[in-house]
Amino acid sequence: MSTRTLIRGGLVITAADEMHADVLIDDGRIAALAAHGTTAAESWTADRTIDATGKYVIPGGVDAHTHMELPFGGTFASDTFETGTRAAAWGGTTTIVDFAVQTVGRSLREGLDAWYAKADGNCAVDYSFHMILSDVDESSLKEMDLLVEEGVTSFKLFMAYPGVFYSDDGQILRAMQRSSSNGGLIMMHAENGIAIDVLVEQALARGETDPRYHGEVRRVLLEAEATHRAIQLARVAGAPLYVVHVSAEEAVAELAAARDKGLNVFGETCPQYLFLSTDNLAEPDFEGAKYVCSTPLRPKEHQAALWRGLRTNDLQVVSTDHCPFCFRGQKELGRGDFSKIPNGLPGVENRMDLLHQAVADGHISRRRWIEIACATPARMFGLYPKKGTIAPGADADVVIYDPHAEQTLSAETHHMNVDYSAYEGRTVTGQVETVLSRGAVVIDRREFTGRAGHGVYTPRSTCQYLN
Fold first, then answer.
1. Which pTM was predicted?
2. Which tens digit of pLDDT belongs to each residue from 16-26?
3. What is the predicted pLDDT for the residue at 2?
4. Three-state SS letters, the chain
5. Predicted confidence (pLDDT) at residue 328 exceeds the cutoff of 60
């Protein structure tokens, strides 16, 4: 039985437009929009009517960078696909793109199937996968073509983490050449891991073991150098490039220079780089461990360059790199040795609210908020216009957002399966009120009404920004 839902009286905001409009939803999709109070809108009938007067009606968020259940540093990310996607829904995100992991010596197919199995039947919102390439050889290169055909159209490589995920320049070039021919998009963790490991070893030898040294050894220049190198390798291969979790002014400058040349080079940043800094990493009594992620948090001065990059479109996407580890029992693995602290922060629930705070603070416009959090990630990763907008034919992934509500972010009240909040005590303006995923209400006026298994796997087409 299809049900019709009518959302009345809200301000509909997309990346392209703002209008006071009513939204009609039928059979899980947006059926029509009409200006509020017009004859067309007044004639609509529905099984359920939602009053959005005084609220924003926005597309569900698309978080293109999450790591549920990721194995790292001898432990696993603390959010499962069930807990993580439920928290995403609470935060107004209705689609995640997570990362399936190839184990060294094993096939891409085996890694992808393992992630299908983790997520299947467990997700509260829709999901897709990127593929992490840990072992680039003739066999995995051929498999890349098959995955693109299957709707897994992006591949992540690491210039960091030697001995774990690291690929050398030759492997990176080969993967880029393959993506150039099969239409896939290479995503790059751009940090010079070989040089970083030298600095880690030297720091520990000097007795510098506290969390703050994690930020000091992962130098800004080693992010900028790797970003530059990745761009040049992509030019040689004639391939597009998407650089993940850009954290520093110098890396943004490399992306801007490449884009000024007309290259298909794209950049993502994350809320932690926009709102947190090395001040957090330096918190006493090992509290700084809560903020250990890679790329690391930077001195506050870098934030202005990231905001500027988002305004000038040298950075196109804000994702979370959600990869939570509990402070107790997980982050604590690195007491006495910062290099053993599992890398990652919780954030899938906070992204939409923090970016709305950025609107309130004057960093970005309302439409840019929707662009960097919904529309562009959907276009970048082949999900648009099914996801990322409110338009006839799109999936009815819709958020009723109260721009005036105030809330205080805290581990006491968040829904992520982690024992701390990276934004503990921070007050923000704006809050998700009601969330629909493919027309089904999963958050109803701040009550979770969804279920594990509602979310479905969503295959993707290729990047929609390529020249």
1. 0.98
2. 999 999 999 99
3. 66
4. CCCEEEEEEEEEECCCCEEEEEEEEECCEEEEEEECCCHHHHCCCCCEEEECCCCEEEECEEEEEECCCCEECCEECCCCHHHHHHHHHHCCEEEEEEEEECCCCCCHHHHHHHHHHHHCCCCCCEEEEEEECCCCCHHHHHHHHHHHHHCCCEEEEECCCCCCCECCHHHHHHHHHHHHHHCCEEEEECCCHHHHHHHHHHHHHCCCCCCHHHHHHCCHHHHHHHHHHHHHHHHHHCCCEEECCCCCHHHHHHHHHHHHCCCCEEEEECHHHHHCCHHHHCCCCCHHHHHCCCCCCCCCCHHHHHHHHHHHCCCCEECCCECCCCCCCCHHHHCCCHHHCCCCECCCCCHHHHHHHHHHCCCCCHHHHHHHHHHHHHHHCCCCCCCCCCCCCCECCEEEEEEEEEEECCCCCCCCCCCCCCCCCCEEEEEEEEEEECCEEEECCCCECCCCCCCCECCCCCCCCCC
5. yes
